[in-house]
Design goal:
The chain is 23% helix and 29% strand. It is of the alpha/beta class and 112 residues long. Strand 3 and strand 4 form a beta hairpin.
Length: 112
Amino acid sequence: MKQIIAIPLNGTNLEPHFGHAKTFIFLTIENEMIAQKDIKPAPKHEPGVLPKWIAENGATDVIVGGMGQQAVNILKSNGVNVHLGAAALPYEEIVKQFVSNTLETSENSCTH
């Protein structure tokens, strides 16, 4: 099964706040391995723009530390699975945990 995971970046680590990310990495996962990496500059942070952009880029999943409820709702309504409360680890480690079903998440760290 092919999946495309979107992760907001701060350098090579997950950016804890979804809307603050300057770049996102889109990782195509096939057979539990990274088949393709694509780093894209994030569009301007305005309500609803980032979640729609992520869906338009084919993401099946997004892994974040925190994001507002409106963004969560937009992503889910576009068929994107939202994984909230991930730690600010290197994206390679996050993907490794994700494909092995050991990704640790907690409560949404965003309050808006």
